[in-house]
């Protein structure tokens, strides 16, 4: 039984022109995810129950389709064909915590089959599934994982009252403790209590506040990451609310004065220096709250950077 539903076929854009291929021409929609290997797999979490439970504005359940609608219009190379598979969105909602266990089983197989993964949320609570299976994959290969979270929030709230969009990194830290490195980039002081900041620091989380990025520049931060972690496999989590409201208004909580898209793009481009970048997750894009699709475009461009990195520089 599949717990996924394939995307609407109309999202797979084409110009019907062999000289002007788009991603919609070369991405294969496939529910037979168990057999996919050594490829790039797109997976969606069409769900914002965790955002609602955390008091945020809903709408991110439409994020996966919204990102695809923009992404699959972007230019592709013929060499991308038969290398990108979209297995659709999780579609069997029951209890959120139980649903995430089902998705974890899927991700474990995708990772076991040596795929690179591109995830679209949905609430940031789904990052727990993505990050935990990434960590397990790398630990099995005796590699120390590096997890980078670009976010306005630390998302280290306790899950004692249930799973929500603020709990993923608490759950990951409690599960894996000192077995991985966690770097939080773009954290905004008005979004995080002193208690949560102290919890993160006590658990050796490296924090770059938004003001740090502005004073040092993203390239300086990136250079420090490359210097300290170059040989580690990378997971990047991008919560779209890290980006300033004028460039990413369509999310559950949007603030002026966040990171610029160009700053985030500089990080994405710079991560291509790492030999192993296996997973990108993009969360909390909310099309109903968006303005002229600008947030969806930011997310799609981030996804496009990962795709081209995976297929051109480190071919799957």
Describe this structure in words.
It is built from 11 helices and 10 strands. The protein is of the alpha/beta class and 316 residues long. It has one domain: Arginase, Chain A (3-Layer(aba) Sandwich), CATH 3.40.800.10. Strands 1, 2, 3, 4, 5, 6, 7, 8, 9 and 10 form a 10-stranded mixed sheet that branches.
Oligomeric category: single chain
Largest sheet: 10 strands, mixed
Instruction: Please trace the helix and strand order, writing H or E for each element.
Output: EHEEHHEHEHEHEHEHHEHEH
Kindly state the percentage of residues in helix: 25-40%
Helix segment tally? 11
Give the rounded overall mean pLDDT: 96
At the fourth CATH level, what is the homologous superfamily?
Ureohydrolase domain
Structural domain count: 1
Ranges where pLDDT stays below 50 over 5 or more residues in a row are none
* Percentage of residues in strands: 15-25%
By CATH, the topology is Arginase, Chain A
Overall shape: it is: globular
Category from helices, strands and their pairing: alpha/beta
Write down the CATH class: Alpha Beta
The radius of gyration over CA amounts to 18 Å
Count the beta strands.
Answer: 10
